[in-house]
Amino acid sequence: MTNLSVSKIEKFLLCPKNFEMSYVHKIPQPNAWKPFAGTVVHQILENGMRLFCKKGAYPSWQDMDDQYETVWEEKRKESEEKPWFIGWQDDPKDPLETLKPDYRKLIRLAREEVLPTINPYLIDGEPVIEHRIDLEIRTKVGLCPIIGYADLLDVSGVLMDWKTTQFNEKGELSKRAQGAWLQFAAYSLWAWPLVGEEELRCEKIFLIRGAGDPTVQRVPFKIGPRHREYFVKVAAQVWETIHYGIFIANPETWLCKPDFCPYWAGCMGEFVKGKDEHVTADAGF
Fold this sequence. Notes:
By secondary structure, the chain is an alpha/beta fold.
């Protein structure tokens, strides 16, 4: 492995064994439509922001909406041409014929309620949108390169990130999604010296699909020195653990379920006691 990303670090913290299957052995899995649809929306919003930086005005929501089918097909083709692509995974609980139009509605929502409040920061005339960030963390086994892409830095100095999601079974936005900050801690290592605020202002912009009209929820917070110190420490520990080839399954995480982990059957499946129950440490394993 030549580098880490925040998503890789987060996956390792959830379950080192899942990380090993995904990033070391690179066992391919079918592509899921839900994250794919989010990527399509993300691309259209990026197109709109870049046009704003060139012309000083955002395109209409209709113009942005008109891109949906074209971008969808472009992204689908890109996915299917990758060497590790093995197919699409359909979810009977969330069929494509429902999912696709639901995500399309998010474009108008973002254009009318969010984009008018955004003015991307410029570096050498280029907007900080999907901006590549390269970091190096010192570890006991050498330098750990970390590559990331920041969604957006606003001219007001706020580091922002788009999230496409839906409410949970309780009709609420996931507290886990709202509270996750590791990505911002990483990118703030680059952003706070540029902005000049040690306590960097950040914001998650959730575009939330639903059965009716979609909604938007913006979650502001701050990232400071302690968050950055924690990220550096954790990134170093993950890199060192990978170096020594230590990948232990974590059955206590939310990821360790047949519906969430594609490697569950080969990892925890042999300890099955019932239809949906697996043996834990209480049983002596």
